[in-house]
Amino acid sequence: MVEEELADARRFGIPDAEGTALRTVGLVARGTAGLEALRASVATLELAEGRLEHARSVLELGAALRRAGERAEARDVLREALDATARVGASGLADRAHEELVAAGARPRRDRRLLSGRESLTASEDRVAALAAEGLTNREIAQRLFVTVKAVQWHLRNVYRKLDVGARGELPAALGLGA
Fold first, then answer.
1. pTM (predicted TM-score)
2. pLDDT in tens, 14-69
3. What is the spatial distance between Cα 142 and Cα 159, in angstroms, rounded to a whole number?
4. Which among 12, 90, 158, 171 counts the fewest CB atoms within 10 Å?
């Protein structure tokens, strides 16, 4: 039944329906095929308008990664799920994301769902954001913090989402640096 729904969504070009169907495929298929379907669901819904459906798919991907023993990746994805579900006001899903995050071995120091602005950033995100606000390139930030450029990109993506900024030039004001 879900394969028919997926085919219809693709035929009519409806990303929200396609992403939701892919999530269902991922939950039913399990294993490697299930993880791939959940990843496809997240990618598809990232481009769609339905933020709640995207948050649900991120949560299901994180939970599936945890069950598959991919705890480190699961924690990253589940942190994103917690932020996403809280942002759309889905407190039940945010509670589940928090529980999954703890089950994946994370020890959240504070409930980020209750925070906003700069205080919602992790310590790493805040360091990366501050350096980016100073005008450093991703490569320069990576070298200064002894991390990969990809890690810097990941943190900046989260910073932009949490602070609701669209460009590097908006960071100083969003961080309260007054530049």
1. 0.62
2. 889 999 999 999 999 988 999 999 999 999 998 888 889 999 999 999 999 999 99
3. 16
4. 12
Range in 36-40, 46-50, 117-121, 159-163 with the lowest mean pLDDT: 117-121
**Rounded CA separation 88/95 (Å):** 13
For residue 167, give the amino acid letter. Answer: A
Q: Are 105 and 75 in contact (CB under 8 A)?
A: yes
The three state secondary structure string of the chain is: CHHHHHHHHHHHCCHHHHHHHHHHHHHHHCHHHHHHHHHHHHHHHHCCCCHHHHHHHHHHHHHHHHHCCCHHHHHHHHHHHHHHHHHCCCHHHHHHHHHHHHHCCCCCCCCHHHCCHHHHCCHHHHHHHHHHHCCCCHHHHHHHHCCCHHHHHHHHHHHHHHHCCCCHHHHHHHCCCCC
Q: State the average pLDDT over residues 151-157.
A: 92
Q: Which amino acid is at 174?
A: A
Is 100 within 8 Å of 157 (Cβ atoms)?
no
Distant-in-sequence, close-in-space partners of 117: CB < 8 Å, separation ≥ 6: 163, 174, 176
